[in-house]
Amino acid sequence: MLNVPSSAFPAPASQQRVALAGRSKVPLKPGRSLMDWIRLTKSGKDLAGLKGRLVEVTEEELAKHNTKDDCWICIRGLVYNVTPYMEYHPGGEDELMKAAGADGTDLFDQVTAAKWYPRFFRKLF
């Protein structure tokens, strides 16, 4: 006889069920998975749009980049161009837009593990 999981699997209070209930992921378009994003970042394309230059960004300049087509976010004093990442973000564009053109450090800390997330963006400052 096959070992078929019961309807109580995972257990009602298990971490597997709790994690799924609190998720806010959105369906991504085909070709927009995490692996697709990693491939794109390794492709050598200029995702930041700065041709490898570092620029100093003022609060006024940051505030100008607040649309889905031109979105920069500051996290812990570093500015990231998240425009190319919009379609790849597991929480969807709306989540990134909450911090568009502003300091999103507090929002970022509420949502994700800050140790690994920034590596997916291209640093501007």
Automatic annotation (TrEMBL):
> Which residues are the signal sequence here?
none
Q: Which SMART domains match?
A: Cyt-b5
An annotated GO cellular component: endoplasmic reticulum
- What InterPro entries does its record include? Cyt_B5-like_heme/steroid-bd, Cyt_B5-like_heme/steroid_sf, Cyt_B5_heme-BS, Cytochrome_b5/Flavoprotein_Rdt
User: Domain Cytochrome b5 heme-binding, which positions?
Assistant: 54-125
Give one GO biological process term: superoxide metabolic process
* Keyword ATP-binding (UniProt): no
Which PROSITE patterns does this UniProt record tie to the protein?
Answer: CYTOCHROME_B5_1 (PS00191), CYTOCHROME_B5_2 (PS50255)
What's the superkingdom here?
Eukaryota
Q: Which GO terms describe its molecular function?
A: cytochrome-b5 reductase activity, acting on NAD(P)H; heme binding; metal ion binding
Its keywords, alphabetically, are:
Heme, Iron, Metal-binding
Q: Which family does it belong to?
A: Belongs to the cytochrome b5 family.
Report the protein name in the record.
Cytochrome b5 reductase 4
Per the UniProt entry, what species is this protein from, by scientific name?
A: Varanus komodoensis (Komodo dragon)
